[in-house]
Amino acid sequence: MSDIKLIVLGSPGAGKSALIVRFLTGRYISEYASNSECVYTKQMNVDGRLTGLEIYDPCSQIRPK
């Protein structure tokens, strides 16, 4: 089994979490407040091979300097 690791980057409120959840579950989230980092995992077939997919969704909050 192969592994694929992804990180989804973008501006706060751009829809990163909604896009990830839509990809993994087929559901659309119209409102989503993310203030914690999440790692989503799924096994899927890629080119006929069972592949472990890990998607990292970083916290969207702007951290003080």
Automatic annotation (TrEMBL):
Stated name of the protein: small monomeric GTPase
Alphabetically ordered keywords of this record: GTP-binding, Hydrolase, Nucleotide-binding
Domain of life: Eukaryota
EC number in record: 3.6.5.2
SUPFAM superfamilies, alphabetized: P-loop containing nucleoside triphosphate hydrolases
Family: Belongs to the small GTPase superfamily. Ras family.
Swiss-Prot/TrEMBL catalytic activity: GTP + H2O = GDP + phosphate + H(+)
InterPro entries: P-loop_NTPase, Ras-related_GTPase, Small_GTPase
Pfam family name, one: Ras
GO function terms (MF aspect): G protein activity; GTP binding
